[in-house]
Design a protein that fits this description.
- The protein has two helices and four strands; from the N terminus they run ββββαα.
- The chain is an alpha+beta fold and about 80 residues long.
- It has one domain: Ribosomal Protein L24e, Chain: T.
- The strands form two sheets. A two-stranded antiparallel sheet has the order 1-2. Strands 3-4 form a two-stranded antiparallel ribbon.
- β1 and β2 form a beta hairpin.
- α1 packs across α2.
Length: about 80
């Protein structure tokens, strides 16, 4: 799962780099991915997730255990 957020599903998108003279060349917009370790107290273990800033805020809002439950329901191995 290269360059994909495990929580939000954000991935690279394509677009154009536009110069001052309005010449357009292809480029990629990459998500702001961070590798983050969390301690899952309910299972007494550490987990590592590849997250964007939005994914980190989602975990802060919903709680780690609820997010992990949703990911496992979708079929992700965590």
């Amino acid at each position: 799962m290269a360059r994909v957020c495990q929580v939000t599903g954000k991935k690279p998108v394509g677009g154009h780099k536009v110069s001052h003279s309005n010449i357009k060349t292809k480029r990629r917009f990459l998500p702001n991915l961070k590798t983050k370790r969390y301690y899952l107290a309910e299972e007494d273990k550490w987990i590592t997730l590849k997250l964007t800033g939005d994914g980190i805020r989602t975990i802060n809002k919903k709680g780690l255990y609820n997010v992990v439950k949703e990911l496992r329901a979708q079929g992700q191995h965590i």
